[in-house]
């Protein structure tokens, strides 16, 4: 009887590798779990999960022998960790292998926003360059003051990249870190006051909901830019939209949104927002590494070996 269940939209390569390694039951989405017959569900001990839909007590209880949820992604806010722990279910994630790509996208969005690259490209493509002349002047990114909200694995990669752009680096974390002279702020409002660009890289979930509040956004000021690669939940999105619409901040670069992919359509109307479809880790190379790490955790679990990247 198959003991591994794979849920989510995987690449053909990942699906083939999972089939070869575990001969799993495969579902497209977590909502299909209840439709599996009881005999199949009762045999499952490991779940490979890829998705942002919640996996809570109800889903866990449909799999009475479940011992592992191997999440595809470093952010595991979709999984109810206390409920898993209570049931003796271990959870793993895929940290580190995606740091570079997510950091690249954060810096890319900031550069796109500051240099108005999307609008300038449209200016050239539409023929305006030929008929109306040069595109208007944008603003410099290099040498600005950057504030990283959450100096974890990804936050540090972002800070390193922005330091190479000759920026003065400030950061918020719950505790001060060893850094090459970067400035620690114990409070995100103080951080926002000190910088031009605020890049959000904290974990998602209930503890950090609206961590970047209206007060933080207001502290950034009218030349400020918000970049978010963490989760839509970490920002007060209504306050961010108000600030963008009213020009109380200059712009934003956003890879993550509340309710994605069905995001607030107000974002589409704003020319001062760079929108990306939550693909910070979306390269062939990184996604392959994430799939491999997820499978390695499942293999370790089935073999009774220590998990490689345990969350609980
Ligand atoms: P990490 O190494 O665990 O760093 C997380 C940071 O969040 C740390 O600085 C941590 O502070 C801070 N933090 C944790 N809990 C907090 C709390 N309750 N209040 C305030 N700050 C808190 O995580 P990571 O690997 O850098 O990943 C960060 C997040 O990026 C993920 O959780 C995920 O949501 C997101 N992500 C997005 C994409 C994308 O495609 N856009 C891809 C990958 C990850 P301390 O340093 O004080 O512990």
TrEMBL record:
The enzyme's E.C. designation: 1.1.1.29
Domain D-isomer specific 2-hydroxyacid dehydrogenase catalytic: 44-312
Keywords: NAD, NADP, Oxidoreductase
SUPFAM superfamilies cross-referenced by the UniProt entry: Formate/glycerate dehydrogenase catalytic domain-like, NAD(P)-binding Rossmann-fold domains
GO CC terms: cytosol
Pfam family, one: 2-Hacid_dh_C
Organism superkingdom: Bacteria
CDD domains membership: HPPR (cd12156)
D-isomer specific 2-hydroxyacid dehydrogenase NAD-binding domain segment(s): 107-280
InterPro entries per record: D-isomer_2-hydroxyacid_DH, D-isomer_2_OHA_DH_cat_dom, D-isomer_DH_NAD-bd, NAD(P)-bd_dom_sf
Gene Ontology MF, one: hydroxypyruvate reductase (NADH) activity
Annotated family: Belongs to the D-isomer specific 2-hydroxyacid dehydrogenase family.
Stated name of the protein: 2-hydroxyacid dehydrogenase
Organism the protein comes from: Roseovarius indicus
Organism placement in taxonomy: Bacteria, Pseudomonadati, Pseudomonadota, Alphaproteobacteria, Rhodobacterales
């Amino acid at each position: 009887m198959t003991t591994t269940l794979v849920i989510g939209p995987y690449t053909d390569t990942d699906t083939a590798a999972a089939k070869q390694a575990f001969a799993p039951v495969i579902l497209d989405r977590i909502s299909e779990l209840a439709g599996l017959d009881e005999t199949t569900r009762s045999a499952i001990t490991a779940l490979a999960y890829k998705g942002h839909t919640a996996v809570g007590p109800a889903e866990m209880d449909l799999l009475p022998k479940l011992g592992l949820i191997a999440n595809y992604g470093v952010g595991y806010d979709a999984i109810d960790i206390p409920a898993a722990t209570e049931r003796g279910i271990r959870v793993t994630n895929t940290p580190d292998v995606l740091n570079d790509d997510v950091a690249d996208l954060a810096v890319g969005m900031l550069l796109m926003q500051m240099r108005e690259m999307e609008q300038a490209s449209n200016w050239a493509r539409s023929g305006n360059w030929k008929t109306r002349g040069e595109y208007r002047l944008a603003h410099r990114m290099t040498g600005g003051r950057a504030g990283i909200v959450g100096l974890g694995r990804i936050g540090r990669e972002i800070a390193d990249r922005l330091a190479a752009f000759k920026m003065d680096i400030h950061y918020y974390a719950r505790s001060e870190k060893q850094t090459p002279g970067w400035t620690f702020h114990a409070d995100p409002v103080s951080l926002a006051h000190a910088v031009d660009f605020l890049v959000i890289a904290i974990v998602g979930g209930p503890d950090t909901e609206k961590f970047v509040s209206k007060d933080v956004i207001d502290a950034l000021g009218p030349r400020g830019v918000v970049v978010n690669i963490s989760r839509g939940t970490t920002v007060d999105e209504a306050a961010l939209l108000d600030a963008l619409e009213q020009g109380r901040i200059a712009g934003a670069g956003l890879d993550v949104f509340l309710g994605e992919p069905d995001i607030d359509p107000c974002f589409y109307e704003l020319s001062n927002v760079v929108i990306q479809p939550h693909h910070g880790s979306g390269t062939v190379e990184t996604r392959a590494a994430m799939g491999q790490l997820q499978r390695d955790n499942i293999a370790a679990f089935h073999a009774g070996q220590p998990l490689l990247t345990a969350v609980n």
